[in-house]
Design brief:
Length: 149
């Protein structure tokens, strides 16, 4: 008997997830399926799915367990600064951070904050994922200027 992958795990479907933001969803679904759980894709995009063991069902939006995260928690994790503040308030050691509105912040303000922290520093957008727009291990004001620009 020849092994048959489920429809959403065919190579062409999984391959299409690269660059479309669904690789993490497919990875999660594949592991759930491997463990014998029922996997149901809810949208043709492949970005929403449910995983069930028959007694409990968890709904995912990409790789986020949408049915398990409160709206308040979701809004906190959408902001890197809010996430850092929440972790700090919970006693988790996190690096110092400043929230600066990119459209309203001059380079001199960014430089002043970086110098108050001490180099190396990290420059990143308030929102985003997959490391886009993140510049780490900035060692000098010259590098900070380059990445800020």
């Amino acid at each position: 008997m020849e092994f048959q992958w489920p429809e959403h795990f065919q190579p062409s479907v999984v391959r299409s997830g690269f660059g479309a933001g669904t690789v993490s969803t497919h990875t999660l679904a594949l592991e759930a399926w491997r463990r014998g759980l029922k996997v149901t894709f809810l949208a043709p995009s492949g970005k929403e799915l449910e995983v069930s063991d028959g007694a409990r069902t968890v709904r995912f939006d990409r790789s986020r367990a949408a049915s398990e995260i409160s709206e308040e928690a979701y809004s906190i994790v959408e902001s890197k600064y809010d996430t850092t503040a929440a972790l700090r308030a919970a006693g988790v050691p996190v690096p110092e951070a400043f929230a600066l509105a990119a459209s309203e912040t001059t380079f001199e303000e960014v430089r002043a904050h970086a110098e108050s922290l001490g180099y190396p520093v990290v420059l990143k957008p308030m929102r985003g994922s997959r490391g886009r727009g993140v510049f780490a291990n900035i060692q000098s004001v010259e590098q900070l200027q380059e990445y800020y620009t």
